[in-house]
Amino acid sequence: MLSSYLHILRKRNFFLLWFGQVVSQFGDRLTQMALIGLVYRFQQSSAVGLAKIMSLPIIAVFLISPIAGVYVDRWNKQKIMYLSDFFRAIFIVAIPLLAFYLQSLEVTYLLIFLSFCIGRFFIPAKLAIVPELVDEDQVLLANSLVSTTAMIAAVLGFGLGGFIVEKMGVTWAFMIDGGTFLLSALAIRLMSIREKKGFRAVELLYAGKDAFTHVKKDFIFEMKEGLAYLFKTKETRYAAKMFSLLFSCIGALYVVFIVFIQKTFNTVTADLGLFAVASGIGLFVGSLLYGRLGRNWPVSRVINVSLIIVSLYLIGFVSILKFYPIKLFALFSCFMLGFLASPMVIGINTLVHSESQNEYWGRVFSSLEVVIHLAFIVCMFIASFLAERFSAFTIIISVGIIIFFFACFNPKKNDDPRKRT
Predict the structure, then answer these.
(1) Of 46, 104, 372, 396, which sits with the fewest C-beta atoms within 10 Å of its C-beta?
(2) How far is CA 72 from CA 66, 77, 89, 135, 412, in A?
């Protein structure tokens, strides 16, 4: 397998794309760490401030993702990618300069939002251009390599990004972040691809009309159809309910947990980065193990048991950490939380796959993505406003108790494991 990956990386154009997107993925995660550091600089450990910043990429997904594909299909994909990274670099570098010059965080929201909006064009262009860079029988291998290394780069971005912000400061973190996007833009610009489609500004109006038509007709229609199909059977309704619960809890815990870690260890991002890496590794290891051993286990029972264990572990973890802030224990516990939560994600996806037809999967998962992101952002803001009146510790414990009682009293379906997996 390694030799196959090395063989495909010898293709110059694919190597440049792969290198550029690895650097870009690292930059994306460094952006998140830098934004956390920026909020702390102006509004120390403010859950509401974090919620405002962290909601911007989700809003960009809602507004831009449905229409980005229309422009990508019409324009030169290579130019879309390197221009996306070029403009992201400009916006990222401008964020701390403007914030510190005006001594205000609010004025930078537009720059942050625009950088995330531009990133929504990069993703479909990258996915669409891969088949043009490799042989037909190498597409699967190429996508696998891109996805795997992107995950590794993202994990490193969290870990190293936390230390960069902590040790070098917020401004340098944004400067380095901007440099990663410029490096990615340069790598993609050096690709030698002949595409017939040009990038002409005059087409903005026509593409905009197509995008509006797409959203008005195809996207809205298919979204309604996907939602109807998603809630059609008990199994898919159960999957939607559990996914919504999961992302509601993640949203409620997201910014509050950041504040809790900052106050517990008296650091801004260094420990956050390490704990994010630990949970990511735990999620990866748990997914591999459950994929091999969980084929004959009832899916809904696995989801409920996982919820119960995760809620109890979360309550015990933060309770101990509040009185005994030991980093090694926190690292291990974050790994365990990721490990214990992994069966939930796999199980929910399995239910959707097993109870719907493959020609509806795109619409079903798109609709599910809208539902869970909406649940995430609503609960994130609710928890952040509550954090202004109650401690982060109290909110985390409360969320853990809610999860526990929901899982205990949630009706379980006697599903046949052979059918589900």
Answers:
(1) 104
(2) 11, 6, 20, 22, 44
Distance of CA 416 to the CA centre of its chain: 32
pTM: 0.80
**Two tokens at 98?**
């403007």
Which residue blocks in 266-298 are alpha helix, DSSP H? 270-293
Concatenating the DSSP letter of every residue in 192-231 gives ----S----TTHHHHHHHHHHHIIIIIIHHHHHHHHHHHT
Give the model confidence (pLDDT) of 15-40 as tens digits.
998 898 888 888 888 888 999 999 99
Task: Supply angle C-alpha 190, 181, 83, rounded to 5.
Answer: 60
**What are the sequence ranges of the domains in the chain?**
1-199, 232-415
Residues 394 and 60 sit within 8 Å (Cβ to Cβ): no
**How many residues comprise the chain?**
421
| CATH superfamily of the 232-415 domain | MFS general substrate transporter like domains (1.20.1250.20)
For 196, phi then psi, to 5°, come to -70, -30
CATH of segment(s) 1-199: 1.20.1250.20
φ/ψ region of 45 (left if φ > 0, alpha if ψ in -120 to 50, else beta) reads left
CB atoms within 10 A of CB 48: 17
What is the rounded average pLDDT of the residues 323-341? 93
pLDDT in tens, 59-113: 887 777 667 766 676 778 888 888 999 999 999 999 999 998 888 888 888 899 9
7: exposed, middle or buried (Cβ count in 10 Å: 0-12, 13-18, 19+): exposed
- Shortest CA distance to 294 belongs to which of 242, 349, 343, 236? 343
Identify the weakest region by mean pLDDT among 9-23, 113-127, 348-362: 348-362
Helix (H) or strand (E) holding 406: helix 392-409
Residue 46, SS3 per DSSP: coil
Would you state the pLDDT for residue 91? 94
Q: pLDDT digit string (tens) for 277-302?
A: 999 898 888 887 877 776 677 777 88
According to DSSP, residue 271 is labeled: H
Q: Which of 187, 50, 61 is nearest to 116 (CA)?
A: 61
How far is the C-alpha of 236 from the C-alpha of 247, rounded, in Å?
Answer: 16
Render the burial of 183-204: b for 16+ CB within 10 Å, e for the rest. Answer: bbbbbbbebeeeeeeeeeeeee
